[in-house]
Design brief:
This protein is mainly alpha-helical. The chain contains 17 helices and no strands. Helix 7 runs antiparallel to helix 10.
Length: about 375
């Protein structure tokens, strides 16, 4: 054991840690599928021939991301069949096949609504013990429903940003290696030994070829991790949009279809109040005439109290749901960008000194307001 170089022990420990993390990820994924196996059976039809059915052996199922292994998920190899078909001819809607039941709107709605009911029950218990009455918080429902995939996306985002720093550092080491080779100073530093010698990290980092391979692997890893993180958060954003739209649709079906109507302006200008009253009652529905007869403007029976404007319902199901989906897709940038800027500042200070850090800070202070103004203009144009 005393002949084993410490670097090999560190590499073995790192490799074993990676294998342990993969095993834990596989176990958690299998446990999650077993817990939600009952909710998957939501499509009508016993032969799985309906929309969203997987069929025997996954026939007609092209979106296989939830069903494939980790290497295929990381590299998106499962999508090569669709890409090959698109290269041969233009794709049609039927070429995309069916969706897994986990990706159906009804499954996402039931998944979200279950957590909503649990949060609502907690609020009811708080009211029973004498606490302040509170409505269920959607943020808590979001956190309970989507925290697993969002946390996995955040970890992948962190790893991708960390690996992204390897490229600039590797370029500096490669340039230093090429300069030493051209100057001939690298040969003068060589030492001849007559026993077995294990190469350590310091010697490996000084070799330009090793650093070039490390830079290539880091670039591939950064692309893989970044795409995996983007895919996870994008899919969760689509899931929450589908769930919110289904919730709004469910609520809209439970609202009243009628509301009190104010009398027209031409009727308000009548000479006699009695004529205006009779004309107003003729314009109102039968369920709301009693409220006007009692002289209470705006007081309507229970069937009309919950009426909501159609435009508000449309905004909730389209614009607001899109905004929540966009937030899910970009929420990790709120902590990733400041962290990345801080790491870059530290590297600038180590490599170039305080002058480079001061110049970078001035550039950020000048470009941030300009970026904010441009974003406001783009948002105004999109509206």
């Amino acid at each position: 054991l005393h002949l084993v170089y410490p670097t090999l022990a560190i590499l073995s420990l790192a490799f074993a840690t990676v294998l342990l993390l993969l095993d834990l990820w596989t176990l958690l994924t299998w446990t999650y599928r077993q817990r939600h196996c009952e909710v998957l059976e939501i499509t009508p039809g016993a032969d799985d021939a309906g929309v969203g059915g997987v069929g025997v052996g996954g026939a007609g199922l092209n979106y296989r991301h939830p069903l494939v292994g980790l290497p295929s998920r990381a590299t998106f190899v499962w999508f090569l069949g669709v890409l090959r078909l698109g290269w041969q001819r233009p794709l049609e809607f039927t070429d995309f096949g069916k969706l897994p039941k986990e990706e159906e709107s009804r499954f996402q709605y039931e998944r979200f609504f279950r957590q909503y009911l649990e949060t609502q029950a907690c609020c009811s218990k708080s009211y029973q013990v004498g606490w302040e009455v509170r409505s269920p918080s959607l943020w808590k429902v979001f956190a309970k429903t989507y925290w697993r995939q969002m946390a996995a996306g955040g970890v992948l985002k962190l790893l991708g940003d960390a690996v992204n720093v390897v490229g600039p550092l590797a370029i500096a080491l490669i340039v230093s290696y090429v300069s030493e080779v051209q100057d001939g100073s690298l040969k003068q530093q060589g030492v001849i030994v007559r026993q077995l010698y294990y190469v350590g990290w310091r010697e490996a980092v000084k070799n330009g070829w090793v650093v070039a391979v490390v830079a290539l692997v880091a670039a591939l890893a950064q692309s893989t991790l970044s795409q995996a993180s983007t895919h996870l958060v994008a899919m969760e954003g689509i899931h929450v949009k589908a769930a919110l739209q289904a919730m709004v649709y469910r609520k809209a079906l439970r609202l009243a279809c009628s509301a009190p109507i104010d009398p027209p302006e031409e009727l308000q200008d009548k000479a006699t109040p009695q004529a205006a009253k009779s004309a107003t009652q003729g314009a109102l529905p039968n369920s709301a005439r009693g409220a006007v007869q009692n002289g209470v403007r705006g007081a309507v029976p229970g069937s009309a109290r919950g009426a909501v404007d159609t435009g508000a319902v449309i905004n909730l199901s389209s614009e607001d749901a899109d905004n929540v989906m966009t937030f899910f897709m970009h929420c990790h940038y709120t902590w990733a960008i400041p962290l990345k800027v801080g790491v870059i500042m530290v590297l600038l200070w180590v490599q170039l000194g305080l002058a480079a850090v001061a110049a970078a800070v001035v550039g950020i202070l000048l470009l941030t307001p300009l970026q904010f103004i441009l974003c406001k203009k783009i948002a105004a144009v999109n509206k």
